[in-house]
Amino acid sequence: MFSDAGWSRDLGPSTEISDKRVLFEESGHDYAVFVKELGALRSRADGARSREEAFDGHMATGRVLFDYHLYKEALVILKRACELQPTDALEAAETGGNRWAYLLPQIHVNLGISLEGEGMVLSACEHYREAAILCPTHFRALKLLGSALFGVGEYKAAVKALEEAIYMKNDYADAHCDLASALHAMGDDDNAIKEFQKAIDLEPGHVDALYNLGGLYMDMGRYQRASEMYTRVLAVWPNHWKAQLNKAVSLLGAGKTDEAKKALKEDLKTTNRVELHDAVAHLKQL
C-alpha cells in the first residue's frame, strides 16, 4: 500500500474503516476505466497554472477518493499534494479531523524536507521529530531527524535517532553512513569505520560512505587505505574531482609522490578548480 520506503503500514486507516472501501476487480473493465480517469485528473492537476491550483486539484481528488474509501488511491494523490504545498497540506490535515490523521506523519516529513532545503534545519528537525512521535515506526523520519541533528552539531542526539532508524530497518545504508559520520564527529572512530563498512556492504557503490570513510582514514593517518576508498569512489563517479584530489593527497601522505602527481593530472583533465592548481604548486615544491 505504501510505495515510499519511509512509510510504515501503521499509517493506514483503521481496519474498521478499510472494510467499508469500494472493491474493484483489478483485471476488470470498471477498474481500467477508473484508473484511466484518475490518471487524467492527476495530469490535469499537475498541469495547473500555479502550484496552489495544482495543490487544490490534488486535494479535491484525494478527498473524493477518501470519501469512497479508496484509501490506496487517495494516499497517492494526497502525497503529491503534500509535495507541492507541505504547509497547506499540514493545515488541511490538522483541520480535517480523524480521517486525515494517518497522513500527518508524511506531511511533517515533507515539510521538514522543504524547510531543510531552505536552510531552516532546526525547524526541519521539529517536523521530523513530530512525524516520529505520530508514527514511531516511521524509520525514514528518524533517519532524516538524525541527519539534520548531525548537520547542526547535535551529535549525541543524532546518533540516538539514527540508531533507532537502523533498529527498525537494519539494511538502511544511508542511515549507517550518517551514523558513522556522527560517531566520527564524536571521536568514536572504530565504530564509525564499522558503520561505514556496513553501508558499503549493503551498497558497494555508496559514494558518500566510500568518500567519508576515505576522509576518516585520512584523519587517522591511514593514507594507503584512504587512497583505496577514493579509488572506489572514482570507479563509481569518474568525474568526482574532490575524490581525485583527496586521492592525490592521500598518496602523497603514503609517500607515493609520483602517483600523487599522476592523480592530480587526471583531475586537471576534468576540472579547472583553483584547489587543484594550489595542490600542483605544492607538489612542485617537494
Automatic annotation (TrEMBL):
SUPFAM superfamilies in the cross-refs: TPR-like (SSF48452)
Residues annotated as transmembrane: none
Keyword Transport part of the UniProt annotation: no
Keywords, in A-Z order: TPR repeat
Pfam families named among the record's database cross-references: TPR_11, TPR_8
PANTHER family: EF HAND FAMILY PROTEIN, PUTATIVE, EXPRESSED-RELATED
Protein known as: Tetratricopeptide repeat protein
Species this protein is from: Cinchona calisaya
